[in-house]
Structures are given as C-alpha cells and as structure tokens.
C-alpha cells in the first residue's frame, strides 16, 4: 500500500475515533488512543479539525457545539461542577446572560489556569461540593451541573457576590417553570448552612 493510502487510512481511522468521542477531543486523549501526533496535526492543517480551546479540538464536519463554553470547561477541568449563575442559565431560571462560566471546585483544591472561556472559580466545602450534582450530555460530552434546587441554595450562600435580585428572580422563575420541591431545597439549604436565611423566602413562595 502506498504511503498516501496509508496516510489517508490513518486519518480516516482517527476521524472515526473522534466521531465516536462526540466529535470533540483533547489532544492528550487522542494521543493516548494511539492517534499519531503527525496524523492529528495533518487533520488540523487540512481543516478537518479546528481548535476550540488550548488542547481541545472538534471535527469541522460535525454540527457546531451548542454550548462550547460548558463543553470546554468539562474537558479541561473534569473535576469541576457548573454552578451559580451559569447553572441558573443552564436550567433556564434566570434572565442573566453570564459572561463567564461559574464553576465549583473543592475548597482544598487549587484553581487551574484556563485561557478560554473566561471562568470564575468558587470554592465549596466537601459536603456542599458533592451534593446535588447532575450529569448532562452536551454534544456527546458529559458535563456536571448542580441541580436547580442545589443551585438555589448555592445562590443564597453566595448572595452577596451575585446579588440578591438575581437570587430572588431565580426563585420566582423556578416556582413558575418547575415543580416546586420545598423539601429538596431545604435539604441543600442545610448543607450550605443557609436554611434559616432561605426559609422565609421559601414560605413566601408557597
């Protein structure tokens, strides 16, 4: 088999692997899967791959990523959880348009450096960090996001940073757009130690 055919075969094999990975892949994962660096960068140079963040690429033949910021953050920082206003936006219980991705990391961990997208890190205690995590698939990539109820409790916890008007709007939209789960919200409020703060607002919402 000619060198040209060998190269085309290697590229086709690489593209098929990336398709099966959801069309988005980290360079390190591609290399671990056995894709030769030369093949990978040939695909990039030919326009078959485009870089969407440092070390993260997508197949150009695939549909555009619907939420590239969340996908990039999930791939670059796999141990983080989408939180606060970004989580409110994901669950459609805010009118805010976040200009950065709010993510939670464990209190004892170091915030990683990421060039894009803009990320705001918030340190959560161990109990708060692991409570209420949901996994959602976005363009084939699993993204961790706090549930609506946990997000409301988190927003009350960080109300001085994000603004009480945003928190109260989220509570109002949650009530009108979702099944109001008072018990679940209070469970998370206790974990976040804001149950006494939240209770009057919850009772007013019933």
Describe the fold and architecture:
This protein is of the alpha+beta class and 206 residues long. The protein is built from eleven helices and eight strands. The strands form three sheets. Strands 1-3-2 form a three-stranded antiparallel beta sheet, sandwiched between helices. The chain has a three-stranded mixed beta sheet with strand order 4-5-6. Helix 1 (3-20) packs across helix 3 (37-45) and helix 5 packs antiparallel against helix 7. The longest helix has 18 residues, at 3-20. The mean pLDDT is 88.
What would a concise description of this structure say?
With 206 residues, the protein is an alpha+beta fold.
CATH architecture of the largest domain: 2-Layer Sandwich
- Which CATH class of the largest domain is shown? Alpha Beta
Instruction: Please write the string of helix (H) and strand (E) elements.
Output: HEHHEEHEHEEHEEHHHHH
Sheet-strand content, in percent, reads 15-25%
Instruction: Please give the domain count.
Output: 2
CATH topology of the largest domain: Beta Polymerase, domain 2
In whole angstroms, the N-to-C terminal distance is 72 Å
Helix content: 40-55%
Shape verdict: elongated
Number of strands: 8
Organism: Desulfobotulus mexicanus
Protein name: Transcriptional regulator
Tags for this entry?
Transcriptional regulator; 11 helices; alpha+beta; AbiEi_N; 2 domains; 206 residues; Beta Polymerase, domain 2; 18% strand; three-stranded mixed sheet
